């Protein structure tokens, strides 16, 4: 049994990923590691029972312990409110956690040589850095009932005031107010430069400053300022470049290019583009995702959702072929980070072996249906999640 010094914050979730979470622990981790976690149940029923207090508590635990691992969770909407008989429509747990931790989410495809990306020119992985604070994820929205004036008003702590007209509404409609903070944007930029230098990857940052001259313009300006004042020499020494381009130009270049760079995206762009990159690289489940907070705390997660339709089939007794790779890599990422912080190499070695076992299983043709569709050579049959986890356990 491999011992742990300090615990990690374990954040459980919903539906199919919750089922697989327990299975990954039971078959792949608990037989080898004397696991120490602080457990937070973010399953929707428990979020409802705690009036969502458990979500903020889990984020505080990540800050306190330095390392967290999170399962996918349902973001409640009207349909979920009925399905689970909720007291309220809670905000997205990821948005709540990210707004407490701040920072940047790095998403990197898990490459296996038998799966070719659907973009044939991609030779090297594309890593996405997603700003994890603000914009539409921490915004105020309003239904506008009819014609009238919508204004933005800033009231300074010193009593000063600024205002601007958003729209003279000619009839009913919608309005959105969002924000970001200079400090958060700067720490986003710093984390990206540090990662790029560490991994020797060129850094791209994209936004839409031609249209959003002040908001996106501020992002572009601060990124450039951090580059010029703190990282220009370090980038040159590492042999990497930084460049800014418009988001639409970036998309065109990404699809035509051969990969091998870090693409820094604003919060929403990063959400969308990471799913695009992961799907084109093979599967949503073949992607690692880690949130690095400026405090130094890190949270590992699966970037995909709770795989709702598979869950309904599982509830009817079907053994689904849901790919647990991203969940496995969330655990290995968290255990390896804990090992690094605690100076416990045996734990770090275990995390590496578990990753190798998962990759080796796929390379040997033991894989779930999402990959079996794409693999060359194609496997004789796709495994269900239970068979795949057994195939990994056998190699581990
Ligand atoms: P999803 O759970 O990511 O699933 C969308 C589709 O992607 C699935 O139907 C499946 O395709 C495929 N897929 C995703 N993960 C897979 C895996 N591990 N193995 C095999 N196939 C996989 O997205 P969703 O169905 O739109 O969302 C379900 C719930 O997840 C929602 O309530 C949403 O709020 C939540 N969500 C949570 C997070 C998070 O916590 N990180 C992120 C996104 C969404 P096939 O059906 O074709 O097999
Ligand atoms: Mg997403």
Verbal overview:
With 396 residues, the protein is α/β, with parallel strands linked by helices. The protein is 45% helix and 21% strand. It has helices at residues 15-29, 44-49, 53-65, 78-84, 93-101, 182-199, 215-238, 247-256, 267-281, 308-315, 325-342, 345-363, 369-372, 385-395, and strands at 8-12, 37-41, 67-70, 104-109, 124-131, 140-144, 148-155, 161-169, 173-177, 203-207, 242-246, 259-265, 287-292, 298-302. The protein has a 10-stranded mixed beta sheet with strand order 2-1-3-14-13-4-5-12-10-11, with helices on both faces. The structure holds NADP nicotinamide-adenine-dinucleotide phosphate (NAP) and magnesium ion. Residues 72-75, 94, 284-285, 301, 304-309, 322-323, 370 line the site of NADP nicotinamide-adenine-dinucleotide phosphate (NAP).
Helix content: 40-55%
What can be said about the biggest beta sheet?
A: 10 strands, mixed
Secondary structure class reads: alpha/beta
Shape: globular
Offer a few descriptive terms:
396 residues; alpha/beta; ten-stranded mixed sheet; two-stranded antiparallel ribbon; 14 helices; binds NADP nicotinamide-adenine-dinucleotide phosphate; binds magnesium ion
Strand and helix layout:
Blueprint lengths: L7 E5 L2 H15 L7 E5 L2 H6 L3 H13 L1 E4 L7 H7 L8 H9 L2 E6 L14 E8 L8 E5 L3 E8 L5 E9 L3 E5 L4 H18 L3 E5 L7 H24 L3 E5 H10 L2 E7 L1 H15 L5 E6 L5 E5 L5 H8 L9 H18 L2 H19 L5 H4 L12 H11 L1
């Amino acid at each position: 049994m491999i011992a742990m010094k300090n615990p990690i914050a374990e954040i459980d979730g919903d539906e199919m990923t919750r089922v697989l979470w327990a299975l990954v622990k039971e078959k792949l981790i608990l037989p080898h590691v004397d696991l120490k976690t602080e457990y937070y149940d973010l399953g929707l029923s428990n979020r409802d029972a705690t009036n969502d207090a458990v979500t903020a508590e889990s984020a505080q635990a990540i800050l306190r312990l330095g390392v967290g691992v999170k399962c996918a969770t349902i973001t409640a909407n009207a349909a979920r409110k009925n399905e689970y008989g909720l007291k309220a429509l809670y905000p997205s747990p990821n948005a709540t956690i990210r707004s407490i931790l701040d920072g940047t989410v790095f998403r990197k495809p898990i490459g296996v040589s038998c799966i070719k990306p659907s973009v044939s020119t991609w030779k090297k992985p594309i890593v996405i850095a997603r700003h994890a604070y603000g914009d539409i994820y921490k915004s105020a929205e309003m239904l506008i009932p009819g014609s009238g004036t919508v204004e933005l008003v800033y009231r300074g702590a010193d009593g000063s005031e600024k205002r601007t007209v958003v729209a003279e509404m000619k009839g009913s409609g919608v309005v959105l107010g969002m924000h970001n903070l200079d400090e958060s944007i700067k720490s986003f930029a710093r984390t990206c430069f540090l990662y790029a230098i560490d991994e020797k990857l060129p850094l791209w940052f994209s936004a839409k400053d031609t249209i959003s001259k002040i908001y996106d313009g501020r992002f572009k300006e601060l990124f450039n300022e951090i580059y010029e004042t703190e990282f220009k020499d370090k980038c040159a020494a590492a042999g990497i470049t930084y460049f800014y381009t418009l988001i639409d130009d970036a998309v065109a270049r990404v699809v035509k290019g051969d990969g091998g760079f870090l693409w820094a995206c604003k919060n929403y762009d990063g959400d969308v583009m990471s799913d695009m990159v992961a799907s084109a690289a093979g599967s949503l489940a073949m992607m690692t995702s880690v949130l690095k907070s400026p405090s130094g705390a890190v949270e590992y997660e699966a970037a995909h959702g709770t795989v709702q339709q598979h869950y309904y089939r599982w509830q009817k007794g079907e053994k689904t072929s849901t790919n647990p790779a991203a969940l496995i890599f969330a655990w290995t990422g968290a255990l390896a980070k804990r090992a690094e912080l605690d100076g416990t190499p045996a734990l770090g070695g275990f995390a590496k072996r578990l990753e190798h076992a998962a990759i080796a299983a796929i390379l040997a043709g033991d894989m779930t249906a999402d990959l079996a569709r794409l693999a060359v050579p194609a496997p004789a049959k796709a495994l269900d999640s239970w068979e795949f986890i057994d195939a990994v356990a056998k190699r581990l």
